[in-house]
Amino acid sequence: MLNVPSQAFPAPGSQQRVASGGRSKVPLKQGRSLMDWIRLTKSGKDLTGLKGRLVEVTEEELRKHNRKDDCWICIRGLVYNVSPYMEYHPGGEEELMRAAGSDGTDLFDQVHRWVNYESMLKECLVGRMAVKPAVAKGNYDWFQTASLVTIVIYTKQKDISLDSIIVDYQDGSLRAETIIKDYAYLLHMGLCHEVQEEFSVRAVENVGKIEITLKKRQSTSWKCLGQPLEKHNSFTPKKDSDLRYRKCQLVSKEDVTHDTKLFCFMLPASSHLQVPIGQHVYLKLTVKEIVKPYTPVSDFLFSEFKEPVLPNKKWIYFLIKIYPNGLFTPELDRLQIGDFVSLSSPEGSFKISKLQELEELFLLAAGTGFTPMVKVLNYALTYVPRLRKVKLMFFNKTEEDIIWRSQLEKLAFKDKRFDVEFILSAPTSEWNGKQGHISPALLSEFLKRGQEESSVFLCICGPTPFTEQGIRMLHDLHISRDEIHGFTA
Length: 489
Ligand SMILES: Cc1cc2nc3c(=O)[nH]c(=O)nc-3n(C[C@H](O)[C@H](O)[C@H](O)COP(=O)(O)OP(=O)(O)OC[C@H]3O[C@@H](n4cnc5c(N)ncnc54)[C@H](O)[C@@H]3O)c2cc1C
Ligand code: HEM
Hints:
Blueprint: H1 15-19, H2 34-42, E1 55-57, H3 59-64, E2 66-67, E3 70-75, E4 78-81, H4 93-97, E5 102-103, H5 105-112, H6 117-120, E6 125-129, E7 140-144, E8 148-154, E9 165-170, E10 173-180, E11 183-191, E12 195-204, E13 209-216, E14 226-228, E15 234-237, E16 245-255, E17 260-266, E18 271-272, E19 281-284, E20 291-294, E21 296-297, E22 315-321, H7 329-333, E23 340-344, E24 360-366, H8 371-383, E25 389-396, H9 405-414, E26 418-424, E27 434-435, H10 440-446, E28 456-461, H11 464-476, E29 484-487
Parallel strand pairs: 1-6, 3-5, 24-25, 24-28, 25-26, 26-27, 28-29
Antiparallel strand pairs: 2-3, 3-4, 4-6, 7-8, 8-13, 9-10, 9-18, 10-11, 11-14, 11-15, 12-13, 16-17, 16-23, 17-22, 19-20, 19-23, 21-22
The protein binds flavin-adenine dinucleotide and protoporphyrin IX containing FE.
């Protein structure tokens, strides 16, 4: 089933539409309606001219396909032959041609990021863009002073930030992995002299460079940086880059509810790693070779009770529910302060860019499915300029199961944009809040938009059946796929 929002969102003539450049739809020729397009895509006709083959497209190749009758456009790394779609495009052929033979992602997003091009153009897929080094080989550099060695990685990404880079220094070798769009760029060297464990990492956002500053153990002048190690100076699709672990020390552990605890781990001095919002890491115990994923939380809901956070962000917090019969969590719970756990590189598909233009954010969480919401909530309230409202609907069994209830209530009290509602499936008779499980009725009440045309986003996380059912119900309520992020395994 094609997921084309039939009631276009935002509504025609709304502020949001007018704001994005006075576009207008063009009259389409007879036989060129959306239904006709769907029929054509289902007809089995070869719409790419490649007989179903997928190819790797270089930039040079892409540029060649820039005519109406031979028009390729790249969106989010995938290249489509849009020539067959020309006459069906509601925005007209000229509009579509603006992206001919090039990367049309930004243009597409500016006009209608909600359009489900992936399903509409499924039969027009030509292939992926070839691995194109965003950093050409040799595009890192280094310089030194008497006591320091600074390595500079030029990413050519203006929005590069400190959570895009993971650096580990061990036994004389330095491994720095930079995430650039969908690729991981690796700098991997055996350094030619010793350096101290601690180093600093800095992102210079406006020029898209990352600087790693190492402290020399001896103030000799280095003739070279070192020897290249495995996969040095190469790009790997992000999804294929392997999970690496580093040993973290348990700093503190506190009860949050009767079965959920807040664990704080400290990264080693020789690692730089920040888990991006909405992503998780794997924890591994040495006792048994078991690995389980967990989503770090930030300290913003409880920090007022704490010592100031270390400025270098060496601490990582997790809210973890202990299952007495579980495989992993009882072992984790047995760790003493000072013990070690291995922590992987981050993983996950959540894109922070989804939140940037947001006006209303809805969060649906069940039990420990609350964990990804913490950072999302903090980010939205702090960095999203047009945000008017955040609503959290938090499902639990009983009152005792609610994580950080008083902190959430306090936040709702002090920030009028934020609202929280607790729904219990097995409350005591004293409970006078909402009861039950996730349902279309609860959702449609919850989702009432402040303003019809505001741009909304919705995150959902909980046990798999909760998330899956929830997403289905949301589709039935005409929330489009683009407006939902489900945190799933
Ligand atoms: C992306 C992601 C992020 C996550 N983030 C967090 C987080 O931040 N915090 C958090 O607490 N959890 C999180 N989880 C869940 C976490 O990964 C573990 O699944 C959880 O901690 C349970 O681990 P366990 O090995 O202790 O329990 P398990 O051994 O998996 O058992 C869990 C429960 O199921 C029962 N059980 C196990 N096997 C069976 C069976 N065959 N039949 C019936 N019952 C059974 C056990 O008795 C126990 O009660 C996340 C999961 C994912 C996928
Ligand atoms: C990248 C270059 C593109 C540009 C500049 C562009 C431009 C436009 C414009 C100006 C409109 C009219 C806006 C309006 O509804 O008021 C439109 C509508 C539309 N375009 Fe595009 N478009 C592009 C690519 C695409 C692609 C690749 C698809 C693939 C499916 C697509 C699908 C649609 C659809 C479905 C509509 C109607 C949307 C609605 O009813 O809200 N467009 N486009």
